[in-house]
Amino acid sequence: MSFFNILKTEVRAIFKDIDIVLTLFGGIIIYAFFYPQPYLNQSVTEVKVAIVDLDRSKTSRDVSYMIEASPQTKILNYYNSIKEAQDAIVENKIKGFIVIPASFERNLYLNKMPTISIGGDNNYFLLNKAVTTSAIKALLNTSAKFKVMNTLAQNASIKSAEKNINMFTFETHNLFNPDESYKLYVIPAVFVIILQQMFLMGTALLSAGYAEKLARGECIKGSGYFLPIVARVLLFTTLFIVYEMFYFGYVFEFFNIYKLSNIYDLLSFGTLYALSVVSMGLALGAVVKKRAYVTPIVLITSLPLVFSAAFVWPLQEVEELVLLTSLFFPSNPATLGFVSMNQMGASLSDVIVQYGLLALQVVFYMAIYVYVLNKEKSDIM
Amino acid sequence: MLSMITWIPIVVFAIIVIIFQKGVVRELGVVLVDQDRSQISRAIAFEINSNPTLNIVKTVNSMQKAKELIVQNRASAIIYIPAHFEKNIMIKKVPKIDLFVNTQFILIGGNIESELQKTLLPLMIKADVMAKMVKVKNLDLAIAQENPIQIQQNSFFNSYANYSLFLVSALIPAIWQVFVMISTVIAFGSMFESKKEYEWYKNSNNNLFFALLGKLLPYTLIMFTLGFGFLSYFYFYVGWGFEGSFAFMLLTLLVTTLVYQAIALLLFSITFEYVLTLSACGFYAAPAFAYLGITYPVSNMNEFATFWHNLLPISHYMQIQLEQASYGTPLINSLPTLGVLSLFLFAFIPAYFKFYLYFKKSV
Q1: Structure ipTM
Q2: For residues A20-38, average pLDDT
Q3: Residue A331 CA to its chain's centroid (Å)
Q4: Which of A120, A338, B95, B232 is the most exposed place for a label (fewest CB within 10 A)?
Q5: With a threshold of 0.90, does the pTM exceed it?
Q6: Is some CB atom of chain A closer than 8 A to the CB atom of B278?
Q7: Which residues are registered as beta bridge partners of B55?
């Protein structure tokens, strides 16, 4: 059989399998638009909060105004007791509250450091951060005002009083993803994992399908296995690269996700990622030998893979055994690699460790695939 | 395929627990660009290294070198101390330190930002205190006198020790629902694939209702037990404490199990195709965590996402788990959510009808 004929047979095998077609030509396209939906509204603004003002002074009202004016928070209500505010959180009316204690203003004038409490629902990281940021800004302002006033009370000029507030200042700059957009945080990373899971399914369904055919004695005699493997890898890898262009090109643009990478570096990294996922998928199908096993395996590994991919949780905090296991999945080095290149402008040399790991995975999974096929001395088409 | 409902779920749950086990983030990498190399800049470096969450991985001479370390993910933030920093402090010129935080990774970036601020704020005080600091290197007391308002952050509803544990309590149910669906499809799919469905139907005296019940019930029990297992693990073994009614929680768990079985059965009954249904279940159940509103609040989602959030039973389950476990919400307030959840049970009806047609046609 000529290589061209083998290629044709492989293409036919892919398109004859409805499950592969639905995965690699249906699901993968739908996911690109479906998955980002929850994250499209950029940053968290106007979180509903309440003020428990036990002081009812001019200063406490000033603090409230500043909290209301901040883009992060919106005051929904004022309560007279902490209990009422807590109940409002339980009833899901507000997401946080700020308690201004009694004698707040008086203590400030007396230089007696009052304590402000910020009550939140720690269960919601982003909401809680918004409430805290807004409240701290308002309090730092008030705090600075009183420092100036106290200094002025000692007969200094306003200018020297202001200088007296701090001996130095600091300013925080956001290096990448400057708006702290959740979309720019999640989508570039999760897309890498979605591509892997979809192609693991597609390729493993194909090779497991051949294993089932072999078990029924329906394989073509005399096809050997070298050329069919080359054809298979070539086809799936090419298709994978097309989807990488679609995901990181068209879909990124569609959702306004910027990209800083150099196209040649990206293509080089992307090709190796494609090869490693395709080899892993083909090996997986050949090892499990049953098509019905493929989807459950891919499904239940998805969430653990997302949360071991370093972008949610720092990897050094993860137990070594899990860390070691995660090294066998291409998506782990690839997530860090793609995000660094696309979102942070890393060059190929900056992600050379990840690149090398992908290369090792290609060798490892190809060896398994060839070993399994060779052991069975089978014709695989 | 028995492994799919026995040891595999337990192993997957254990992996999730292990990933977040250490809980508290420590030693996040920081690069220091010290153009001043003075006593004060060294004192600042010392204070930063004393914070257990932070760790200066390298001191470099230029911003360019520092940025390289960020891009290579060897550090998450840069501290830039300009030249003449100490001198400017002495002549009261108020110099500025610049912090550059890699906010691409929001959770890590947010952590490092607040820790850096916590470390630098106390240092930001007047010169006389600073002078003291250079001598004693500990100034908690001095700060207290210098900051007019003290801010105390209280969390009133945190039965979890930290954020990572909270993530675990949502991630495991999100994976569990995938197992409920898969186990149902496997039960029916493998039977149809090996063409034993007529045998099964006849064995129950051609009574479809009892046939379905008999097939589903063992899986209901196993999946419910798994759920009971992780809930007990969270709230009694780890000891996060359960504020509300645990009995009501178990009822919710049972309804959720049945609901996902109903949906899986309905999806299967559309085509009676084994692998195809597995893919369909995957599409429905696998991305549920993104729509759950745990990492990203539902109140901030667009209309479509909110709609899909409501179409996922696990969203309603999660709401009850939060209300009952963390808030101790009165049952009367959680009851409507359980009602909404129960509506999904109606999926059994069209599924039953499709099975009925399948066997009627062939008899």
Answers
A1: 0.86
A2: 94
A3: 12
A4: B232
A5: no
A6: yes
A7: B29
